[in-house]
Amino acid sequence: MTRTIPVNQNLVEMEYAVRGAIPRRAIEMQRTGRTIYACNLGNPQALGQKPITFYRQVLTLLEAAENIDRERSLARVAAANHQLFNESGVEPLSNYIIDYSANFLEQCRTGMGAYTESSGPLFIRAAIARFINRRDGDSIAADPEQIFLTDGASDAAKRILELLITGPQDGVMIPIPQYPLYSATVKRCGGAQVNYYPDEDSDWALTPEILGEAYRKATADGVHVKCIVAINPGNPTGAILDKPSIDGVVHFAEQHGLAIIADEVYQNNLYGGTFISMASAVGAREIPLFSLHSISKGFAGECGHRGGYMELRHMPQVEGTGMNLAELILKQASVSLCSNTVGQAIIYMLVNPPEKDSAPYGVYQEEKNAVLGELEAKAALIKESFKQMEGMECFGRTGAMYLFPRLNTLPSGSNDFDYCMALLEETGICTVNGAGFGQLPGTKHMRIAFLPPRETVTGFLPGWIRFHNRYVHRPQI
pLDDT tens, 158-174? Predict the structure, then answer.
């Protein structure tokens, strides 16, 4: 007898391409002994990026506070007898690391294994506010009480959409192509996805016409558009939004009474570009703004530790209540008790790095610059190789951790999924096809994360070039 169970159909229909059919096939191939080059996911440390030493040294003491006194003793012995320590090969932790860790635990009070306040410890939120003010200037200062620590930026995005979507006619404007978290969460919450299409040929720029066309079409279909998502720098495109595009989003949101979700987790991945925060562009205008940041990207790459924050500005009242939306978000956060404390600690270190005259500062800066420099170099290598691939074009200034080239000359009957699956089967390079992120109808793309080590990238590029130029001349599929 067959047993079945009804479930939420929104979950059945939800899709998430970065862990979809192509990556699943890659896992199968790897189990048979094939070499796989994982370029499908923004997961830096899985591909050899080393953790930032400062973060891990502090975490060592935070998680084992009883070692702080021992490290102080070792530091005193090292100061008194340099030769002994030089001969032993043991490198004691600096007093700065020890004091930093002790100070964190003193402010935390209950240690790493206890629940914190639902929004996160106030001293961490205050440090985040100072970070935002340094970045944007103090004219419109950030408020620690409007900052919530989250389990990565994805957790924050899900919380916001869960709040805003009340039924199938509530619409969320999403840039296409987009990070599938947004389409999947809108689907899961039962809302309406409203696509808008940045101009690829103009380096993924936004214009009032692009936003207006999407809005008019949605409202004509009976959709009540409530918010607009802006991902800057972009995922999957890597594009960095320029000032006219940012200002255009702000003006559009103000004009139509929309909230803005600003996904800014790649704000350190600029490679010479300029980041303009949505908060600085919104300023004092009464536009509800949710800004997201994370420890998973940038130069930290601490994906597994799931740390992030959400900053709120200009929150409205909740309809039918005397409650401000920020109060409801606190209530929502309280259901989960708090975000994980290791993620909280690393987000604190991200926004409160070693001071310039401190012992760990030099190594910290060296490691940070090395990570970002390597990412830039690998992106340049791959973009240069596109010039040798017939019909391959890549637009926009490089940002984030991805390239999103357009495939202009696929054989008739072939789509970008076919291309990426064939690329995997023949070369072991695992990417994600453009349709998994959404794309302008009639176009075909792929996303590649430029995260494997440089020697690995250099090694697989010739094979990709050969594969590509054979594939585009295959007979009709």
Answer: 999 999 999 999 999 99
DSSP helix/strand/coil, 121: coil
> Residue 239: phi, psi to the nearest 5?
-70, 145
Helix (H) or strand (E) holding 227: strand 224-231
3-state DSSP call for residue 175?
strand
Sequence-distant (≥ 6) Cβ neighbours of residue 155 within 8 angstroms: 306, 308, 339
Q: Is the pLDDT of residue 264 over 60?
A: yes
Q: Which residues of 112-124 are buried (b: 16+ CB within 10 A; e: fewer)?
A: beeebbbbbbebb
CA 366 to chain centre: 23
The pLDDT value given to residue 243? 95
CA angle 137, 211, 286 (to 5 degrees): 40
User: CATH assignment of 122-351?
Assistant: 3.40.640.10
Residues 6+ apart with CB under 8 A from 95: 72, 75, 359
Residue 35 has pLDDT above 90, yes or no: yes
Q: Enumerate residues 6+ apart whose C-beta is below 8 A from 66.
A: none
- Residues of CATH 3.40.640.10 domain(s) within the chain? 122-351
What's the predicted TM-score (pTM) here? 0.91
Instruction: Spell out where 237-351 has E strands.
Output: 259-263, 289-294, 308-313
Q: Look up residue 361 and give its two tokens.
A: 């500062």
Q: Which two tokens stand for residue 400?
A: 């984030």
Q: What count of other Cβ atoms lies within 10 Å of the Cβ of residue 148?
A: 27
3-class DSSP assignment, residue 376: helix
Task: State pLDDT tens for residues 387-405.
Answer: 999 999 999 889 999 999 9
Predicted local distance difference test score (pLDDT) of residue 287: 96
Indicate where the chain has its CATH 3.90.1150.10 domain(s).
9-47+365-471
Question: Tell me, what's the pLDDT at 18?
Answer: 60
Please report which helix (H) or strand (E) contains residue 279, including its range: helix 278-282
428 pLDDT band (50/70/90 cuts)? very high
Q: Percentage of the chain with pLDDT > 70?
A: 93
* pLDDT band with cut points at 50, 70 and 90 for residue 114: confident
Judge whether 238 and 274 are in contact, CB under 8 Å.
Answer: no
DSSP-derived secondary structure for 401-433: TEE--EE--PPTT--HHHHHHHHHHHH-EE-EE
DSSP string, 229-244: EEESS-TTT-PPP-HH
Top-tier CATH class for 9-47+365-471? alpha beta
